[in-house]
User: What shape does this take?
Amino acid sequence: MGENSRYTAKYAEWRRQWWKETLGEDLRESRVLLPAKDYPRAMALASDLGTRLPLLLGQLVVSQLDFLDEAPSPTTVSVPGPPEQSDSDRGADLRRLIFASQFPGDTASTRMRLSAIVDHIASEVARGCRPTARQITNLLNAPSNQVDALCRLLEARGMLDRTRTPGVSPGKSAKVLSIREDAADRLQAAHHAATGRVITLDD
Assistant: This one.
């Protein structure tokens, strides 16, 4: 057997073992076809977040399905609910949930970075500011693709809205970041879809 054949067989065996250990009872394998031009972006996002591409794509799909399921129908009747939480309160609640979450592929570092982004957005909105990914990038002096990847993941898990807003800076529009009012519920739904469990907090 040639060197290339041995390498191919070894890689195939490693991949089979990885799938066997990752899938478990709560996950199902499904192929995803990406346009060639978007594949490098998806790989870069997975690398920035420290997760495998199949797990990341699955989380994005589940988040979109949850969004479609929750879209109001034309006959939806609005019922007054309890008083809204402030952005600061929502940020604090989300921080605890993020710390306790166990999304496949997430590391402690990933959870810390996601929590820091949420805290900053909540603080800026409470001050009447309009935070953007570029503003966070400049504040941290960090690579823009890393900050954007974190914001996209928060959006995919239902915690964040990014709204195109004119006049954020003179003559320019930008996507303003805000924490969703139902962020905690959507995060729990995304976590249950990814792990089969809800996030539990130790009081």
Summary: The two ends are 59 Å apart (CA to CA). Residues 73-79 have pLDDT under 50 and may be disordered. The beta strands are 160-169, 172-179.
